[in-house]
Structure formats: structure tokens, C-alpha cells
Design goal:
mainly alpha
Length: about 325
């Protein structure tokens, strides 16, 4: 496969995954803000900071109001990580590799863009926000369903899955990084119910609230949350799960192209370390662990680009 085609597939998946992740974070923050007198200002500020758009937001808006933040994250074309910008870039990358995609995959991507553009043509009313966000998340889910159900599981599929899971691991790590202090053992006595609501925001942002409660029967504690988000290989957005998938897809590419890759060795090392450290304990300094894996994930993405001659978007 040509490097530019692999690059388009990789980044199409990354942009679409990122748009869904931001939509889920807005859903969780909005749910949290409904019970707060200040409309959850700190939570909205954190999301803007995590997307790397803090400077752009401060240049355009004087206040961090719910309306300003939501429209900035959803539809501001000056924000390169707004959902509208991300879905547009995903579609543009999809167009450049249209012949590599099945009709169902292309239609799901194109329809997601049309629905997104229509819904975000005007500033979003707070009353319409839940429906708008649900539509964005649904579009991403339909894309994944079409991908699994209609695409050959070949190198095209592998590049799409690599983009998805590199982006997903990065998102999980950054959400944990922004709230790591809530996961310290002392958090149980520092913040009380406030800490528990923050754990709920974190889990909802990662589509993990219901599955965590299913496993833990509603018992929230910092170590259990950290273990679940890092090491639980059953949870599709845990770091362990993401690296299992990254490793498997790189193995497929290695077998297809009959070559050894540095990216496969790096992914295997990260997965092995996660597999053998199956719990957060005194040996792991959580802040350092998260920061270290954010760097490793970024380096792995660059190594994949180098191994397969992908362009750097």
C-alpha cells in the first residue's frame, strides 16, 4: 500500500474517534454541570485545555460560559479540534481512499458528515445539545459497525484500527491525567461526594460508567477506577485493551508485508508491561505512569508513521 493511502486511512480513523471522544466528554460534563451552581466551569475549562485549544478559545471569547464552550467545541471552524472540523477532516481523508472502502463504510462516513454539518449549521441551543451529541456518537458507532461487518480484514482494515486505538489510548490517558488526583488513595477522604462525582464524569467520558457499575456493584473507590481504566482487558477503552488491539494489528501488517517493524516491538513491550502489571499498587506512581504512557503513545504513533512511510498530518 502507498504510504499516503495508509496515512489517509490512519488519520481518517483518528479524526473520527477524536470527534466521538469529545462528544462523550461534552455529554459527561453537561450531565455534571446540571447539578452545579457554577455550571461546572472547571470541567469545561479542562476539556478545552485537554484538546489543546486553550489559546484559541481565550482569543475568541471573554468568558468561559457553557454556551461559548459548547459552540467552540462543536462547531467553531477556527478550532482545529472542534467536532465539525474533525468530521470534515475524516471525510476528506476518506474521499482520498474512497476506492479502498466498501460502500457501507463510505456511506456511514459521508452521512455522519452531512448530519453533523446540518446539526451544527447554527449555534447549538442547550435544549438540543443531548440530541446533537447522541447523533455524533451514533454516526461513529455506525462507521465501526460497517467497518467490522463489510471490510476485508486486510492491511486497509489494520491501518483504520491502528488509528482508532492510538487515538483512543491517548484520550483515556489524557482524561486520567486531568483527573489523576481523584484517583489517589487519599481522594476518598479529601473530597467525599465531590470526588465521587468526578469519578463518574471520568467514567462517563469513557463510556465506562455502566460497565464499571456492573462489575463493582456501584462501589466507587480510586484504586478500582484506576485499575479498570488501565488494566481491564475487557473494557474497550482501557489502556490494556487498546494496546492489545494495536499489537494485533501491527502483527497482521508484519505478517502481510513479511517484515519486522520497530512499531511492533514498541507496542509489544508496552502491552507486555501492562499485561504483567495487572493492578495499581505502591510500586506505580500514577502521575508518572500516565505521563510516561502519553509520551510512549505519541512516540509509537510517530514510529508507525516512519515504519509505513505515512505522511505526518
Amino acid at each position: 500500500m502507498l504510504g499516503r493511502h495508509g496515512d489517509s486511512l490512519f488519520w481518517m480513523a483518528r479524526y473520527l474517534e477524536r470527534s466521538e471522544n469529545i462528544a462523550r466528554r461534552i455529554q459527561a460534563a453537561f450531565h455534571y454541570a446540571l447539578s452545579k451552581e457554577d455550571d461546572g466551569k472547571d470541567e469545561w475549562t479542562t476539556i478545552i485545555s485537554d484538546t489543546g485549544s486553550g489559546c484559541t478559545f481565550s482569543q475568541k471569547y471573554d468568558e468561559t460560559t457553557v454556551t461559548n464552550v459548547i459552540n467552540f467545541l462543536l462547531r467553531d471552524r477556527d478550532n482545529l479540534n472542534s467536532i465539525l472540523s474533525l468530521v470534515y477532516k475524516a471525510r476528506q481523508n476518506g474521499r482520498s481512499v474512497r476506492t479502498a472502502l466498501t460502500q457501507e463504510v463510505w456511506l456511514s462516513l459521508n452521512e455522519s458528515w452531512i448530519a453533523c454539518e446540518t446539526a451544527l449549521k447554527r449555534p447549538t441551543n442547550i435544549r438540543d445539545l443531548p440530541a446533537v451529541l447522541e447523533g455524533i456518537v451514533r454516526g461513529s458507532s455506525l462507521f465501526r459497525g460497517a467497518l467490522y461487518g463489510t471490510m476485508l480484514h486486510n492491511d486497509i482494515f489494520n491501518f483504520l484500527r491502528l488509528g482508532t486505538y492510538i487515538e483512543r489510548a491517548d484520550n483515556t490517558l489524557r482524561i486520567m491525567d486531568s483527573k489523576y488526583y481523584q484517583l489517589l488513595p487519599t481522594a476518598r477522604v479529601i473530597g467525599g461526594s465531590e470526588d465521587q462525582s468526578q469519578w463518574e464524569v471520568m467514567l462517563r467520558s469513557l463510556a465506562a460508567w455502566r460497565s464499571f457499575n456492573w462489575l463493582k456493584k456501584g462501589r466507587l473507590d480510586p484504586i478500582s477506577v484506576a485499575n479498570f481504566l488501565i488494566f481491564d482487558e475487557r473494557m474497550p477503552r482501557s489502556i490494556h485493551f487498546c494496546y492489545k488491539e494495536i499489537k494485533l494489528n501491527l502483527e497482521d501488517l508484519s505478517n502481510s508485508y513479511c517484515s519486522d517493524y520497530d512499531s511492533l516491538n514498541a507496542a509489544s513491550q508496552i502491552w507486555t508491561a501492562l499485561h504483567h502489571s495487572n493492578s495499581v499498587d505502591k510500586r506505580i506512581k500514577l502521575r508518572e505512569f500516565i505521563a510516561d504512557h502519553i509520551v510512549k503513545n505519541n512516540l509509537l504513533s510517530l514510529t508507525i508513521a516512519s515504519d509505513f512511510n505515512l505522511c505526518k498530518q
